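Handover notes (outgoing to incoming on-call)

Open items:
1. Longin domain-containing protein: sequence verified, structure written out, both below. Nothing else pending on this one.
2. Nothing else urgent.
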Amino acid sequence: RIPFAFLEDIHSRFVKTYGRAVHSALPYAMNDEFSRVLSQQMDYYSNDPNADRINRMRGEMNQ
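Longin domain-containing protein structure tokens:
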């Protein structure tokens, strides 16, 4: 679940940020700017327990 949530999140952020500019961009043109987003989101989905919505909901239901 988490890997797919990560990929969906990255895809939507990338499209929202760059839109149609990707069709005419040079290779790696967005790398410097978007690498920060990738790094932040990798950290979030790897370490934050809230990244897994199902487990978070289960925890809330058990309280």
